[in-house]
Specification:
The complex is a heterodimer of chains A (about 500) and B (about 375).
Chain A lengths: L1 H15 L5 H7 L5 H11 L5 H8 L3 H10 L11 H4 L11 H28 L3 H13 L4 H4 L2 H13 L5 H9 L2 H6 L13 H11 L7 H10 L3 E4 L4 E4 L9 E3 L2 E3 L3 H9 L2 H15 L6 H13 L4 H9 L2 H4 L11 H11 L9 H9 L21 H16 L26 H5 L4 H19 L5 H10 L4 H5 L16 H6 L7
Antiparallel strand pairs in A: 1-2, 3-4
Chain B lengths: L30 H4 L3 E7 L9 E2 L4 H6 L10 E3 L5 E3 L6 H5 L3 E8 L7 H10 L11 H8 L10 E4 L13 E4 L4 H6 L11 H19 L14 H15 L5 E6 L8 H25 L6 E6 L20 E6 L6 E3 L18 E2 H12 L5 H4 L10
Parallel strand pairs in B: 1-8, 1-9, 5-11, 5-12, 6-7, 6-8
Antiparallel strand pairs in B: 2-4, 3-4, 5-10, 9-10
Classes of the chains: A mainly alpha (about 500), B alpha/beta (about 375).
Chain lengths: ~500, ~375
């Protein structure tokens, strides 16, 4: 595959830009080339634009991986919108039924703004890997706004994931377990001495650390006692340890006995080899292949343990593993909806001042940010694509290629921030209107106006994109596809952008 | 007992690769005959208020719990000396009188979850309250016993693009406003590429979509008149496509939202009217197509609503509810006991009487002649409805 792409690339360059030819050619003496660069950038971030491909093509694999890891950040470059900073969100004590409804609705609208903000960050970030790992942790330590219902808590949890995106897993596990959104999501607050709730204790073992089959029901019962007393101060939404509700007695977990508290249990979990292997296997499925290579997972898990759960050395080993680059593992993963949407907008260098119209796209494609389907998160890969989502994906790409969606007719309906959570209850706008408060009606209209403006301001600039293709010595297929197109292109012709985007090969990475 | 276990059914998304010869169902029924028997699922989104649908008018507790919302005797049709059907469902009375309407009371499950999202997931996946399963129960059934390849698709979906019980493997075609599917399907390509993995999966789904679009015949003009409201249009779209299809096993329709937390009365009446008018037109179209005797229509919803009305003239999330089963072969009547409002649980909700998986077992065993135990994760007694 590599040679085919390179050949195409070079033939185009030699035809069009003889002078620029020197740059990629010289680089290719030591660099990994455009196909490897495309693969690395797409797998560790989002589908790259031609300039990024050109830049990385000149580097050897090791240097490229180092550069990506060195570029990882801990803070977003996009400022929060005001509605997300505003702490007016903290729960007031006495609300009438109508006020309570408006409060919940208000949080929903703010969450909509938070989604738009995260999408902006994914589009703007100089370190796509930071956002991919932030999303990875969102899907590992799942919480959903559907249950948490306070935008400030979802915002802070998201920032916690970003801050520790490639930091230390042990530290993140402790922090995520005490994260207020998590405490609410997994009912930790109702876990009390004499009346333990096992929800958190079970998830922490099954989904955050060991994986199924590596603990007993007794371990869970005992661990639940250790976590008693962890709660959230409803007034300010902060984590609080309520000593009076904590069960201070002896517990026996994994054969060890002591007056363990919650942090002790997390340390016991971190001390077990299965935790590192469970996490590395999940990273393998995220970045390398749906097929686990047991030996490789064990090797990298050992690195993770030896480095005391620092993520960077483990990810470096993962990205430099033979399997990561193996021809059989190219185009082996289905792009998630976020990757499809953000990747397309980034790869085509489309200007998106306000990405809010794409919130609905993601929802329809099955990945509503801040609202994973359940505690297990999005199952991913093949599950992303069924007959319904496939056509929605194609329709999004079709519009993108035709730039039809943008700047043309105003949307007929407001984006549904509130009346349409993913899945359950939705009401046809007119019927529901009678049940809406003036506040909700006003905010819905504001959202509609916002979508009109947002769509108008999205710009696809084919000319400058073609120029950047030429600069990097790429043709459209090698800049956009992880494998040869499924629909063959007639000899001597150039496919249209639409043909490339609608090819099945564009769905995978 | 294990609170949760993951059934690892992710692999079910590879269903389509299974050739029809691999999985023979039990008994002599051939798959093409089996799936001549159509299942039509109607999801009442948002949680339908069962107590104002099938009304326990003889129970004084009902009127005590619902001083404003309680439906009086003149607002219902008596089905027996204890319950009556909301008058808004007048179009269903002919079904009742001809013995083609079964009302299954007290449907629910142990340890009920009151979240829309979680509870509908439990219904869609036929899982226990504390068990997480990825693939829908219909998808799993069709994995074990595939629909013949010659069929247009496993299922038609109208009214919403949620796949519900068809998620995770079934070849489901989502119908928008008429014509949308075929227009969209042109975006799918039919191509082959050796090899497996992600790309093979994408190509398989593309092929399913193309196959479905191509196997649809020309437009069929149905004589049936469909009501002019959203659910009526949903029924029309589904029936017109069914008429043009080369067979489907399942049709999934949705209507909503039934999430009536406030000012319930007018809205709920309107929804029940739409539902009944839609079902009535559905029957008429199925009779016209010669399919009424091999159609089974089932309504369901994530939960019922709380017996006690709230302060906003509405009702909050509850647990059990009655549901409807209709069809040419259905033995009409009341099934299960009328809920006893004197006996509520600690959340002021009704305890379940019939597990919803018994309804699914009825579909699997009696309608499709398929075993249900493995699929439903336990033995659930089917109901003597068909």
């Amino acid at each position: 595959m590599t040679t085919i792409f390179l050949h195409r690339a070079y033939s185009r360059v030699s035809r069009l830009l003889p002078l620029l030819l020197l740059v990629p050619l010289l680089a290719s003496a030591t660099g990994m080339g455009t196909a490897d660069a495309f693969h690395l950038l797409g797998r560790t971030g989002f589908t790259p634009n031609p300039d990024e491909i050109g830049l990385y093509a000149a580097l050897p694999r090791e240097a490229a991986v180092d550069r990506i890891l060195a570029g990882v950040g801990t803070r977003a470059v996009t400022p929060y919108p005001e509605s997300v900073i505003d702490e007016a969100g903290s729960q007031q004590v006495r609300l009438s039924e109508a006020q309570r409804r408006d409060f919940v609705a208000d949080q929903r609208f703010r969450t909509y703004d938070l989604r738009a903000w995260w999408l902006s960050e994914m589009l703007q970030t100089p370190s796509p890997l930071t956002e991919r790992m932030t999303l990875f942790w969102h899907n590992h330590f799942v919480s959903s706004e559907q249950k948490v219902r306070l935008v400030s808590l979802m915002r802070d949890q998201n920032q916690l994931f970003r801050e520790n995106a490639l930091g230390n897993f042990a530290k993140l596990l402790h922090a995520a377990s005490k994260d207020p959104a998590m405490v609410i999501y997994l009912d930790a607050a109702s876990n009390r001495k004499e009346r333990p709730n096992e929800n958190f204790a079970r998830e922490v073992m099954e989904l955050f650390t060991l994986g199924e089959g590596h603990y007993s029901e007794q371990d869970i019962k005992e661990a639940a006692r250790a976590f008693t007393g962890w709660s959230v101060e409803r007034r300010d939404g902060r984590f609080v340890y309520r000593r009076a509700l904590h069960d201070d007695g002896e517990k026996t977990i994994f054969g060890k006995t002591g007056r363990f508290d919650g942090d002790d249990v997390l340390d016991l979990l971190l001390a077990r080899r299965e935790t590192s292997e469970f996490l590395v296997a999940k990273l393998w499925r995220e970045f390398v292949s749906p097929q686990i290579d047991r030996g490789e997972v064990e090797r990298i898990a050992k690195i993770l343990r030896d480095e005391h759960y620092e993520m960077k050395p483990a990810l470096q080993a993962l990205f430099l593993s033979k399997a990561f680059w193996d021809a059989d593992n190219r185009a082996a993963l289905v792009k998630s909806p976020v990757e499809l949407v953000v990747g397309s907008l980034r790869a085509l260098q489309i200007t998106v001042p306000d990405p809010s119209p794409f919130i609905r796209t993601l929802r329809v494609l099955g990945q509503d940010l801040f609202a994973p389907p359940n505690v297990k998160g999005w199952p991913g890969n093949d599950v992303w694509i069924n007959a319904s989502t496939l056509l929605e994906r194609k329709q999004f790409l079709d519009r993108l290629a035709r730039a039809e969606e943008f700047g043309s007719a105003a949307p007929r309906q407001a984006p549904r921030a509130i009346d349409r959570p993913p899945g359950p209850p939705s009401a046809p706008a007119a019927e529901a209107a009678s049940q809406r408060s003036a506040f909700v009606i006003e905010r819905t209209e504001a959202l509609r106006q916002r979508a009109v403006v947002a769509l108008r301001d999205i710009r696809l600039e084919p000319k400058s994109w073609s120029e950047s293709l030429a600069r990097s010595g790429l043709d459209m297929q090698s800049a956009l596809l992880a494998t040869a197109p499924v629909v063959p292109v007639a000899m001597g012709t150039q496919p249209s952008l639409r043909t490339v985007l609608l090819d099945a090969a564009y769905e995978v990475k | 007992m294990k609170r949760r276990d993951f059934l690892g059914l992710l692999g079910a998304s590879g269903v389509l690769a299974v050739s029809p010869t691999v999985a023979m169902g039990m008994g002599p029924t051939r798959d093409s005959d089996r799936f001549r028997r159509l299942l039509i699922l109607v999801e009442l989104k948002g949680g339908n208020d069962g107590l104002n649908t099938v009304i326990p008018y003889a129970d004084d507790n009902y009127y005590a719990l619902r001083p404003q919302l309680g439906i009086r005797a003149d607002g219902l049709f008596k089905l027996d000396d204890r319950v009556g059907l909301n008058k808004a469902m007048l179009p269903l009375m002919p079904f009742w009188e001809s013995g083609n309407l079964a009302v299954v009371q007290g449907l629910g499950y142990p340890q009920p979850n009151l979240s829309h999202f979680r509870s509908i997931e439990i219904w869609d996946t036929a899982s226990r309250s504390n068990q997480y399963v990825d693939a829908g129960w219909i998808s799993r059934a069709l994995l074990a016993s595939p629909v013949p390849q010659s069929f247009t698709a496993d299922a038609l979906v109208a009214g919403s693009s949620d796949l519900g019980p068809l998620a995770g493997g079934a070849r489901a075609v989502t119908l928008g406003a008429s014509g949308d599917f075929e227009r969209q399907a042109r975006l799918a390509t039919l191509a082959n590429r050796p090899g497996g993995g992600a790309l093979a999966h994408v190509l398989r789904v593309e092929a399913d979509v193309s196959h479905a679009a191509q196997s649809l015949g020309g437009a069929v003009a149905l004589k049936t008149e469909f009501p002019n409201h959203e659910f009526g249009r949903t029924c029309r779209t589904a029936c017109e496509t069914l008429a043009r299809s080369n067979g489907v096993a399942v049709v999934r329709l949705t209507i909503g939202s039934f999430d009536t937390h406030q000012n319930q009365a007018g809205r709920h009446t309107a929804l029940l009217t739409q539902l009944s008018e839609g079902l009535s037109s559905l029957k008429s179209a199925l009779v016209e197509l010669g399919r009424w005797d091999d159609s089974l229509i089932l309504s369901y919803s994530e939960f019922g609503r709380r017996p006690r009305e709230n302060q906003s003239g509405g009702t909050d999330h509850g647990t059990v509810a009655p549901h409807f089963v209709l069809g040419g072969k259905v033995r009409g009547g009341l099934y299960g006991q009328t809920p006893s409002l004197a006996r509520l649980d600690e959340t002021d909700n009704l305890p379940w009487q019939i597990d919803f998986r018994q309804l699914y077992a009825t579909v699997l065993e009696r309608w499709w002649q398929l075993p249900s135990q493995d699929l439903l994760g336990g033995k659930f007694q089917s109901l003597n409805i068909v």
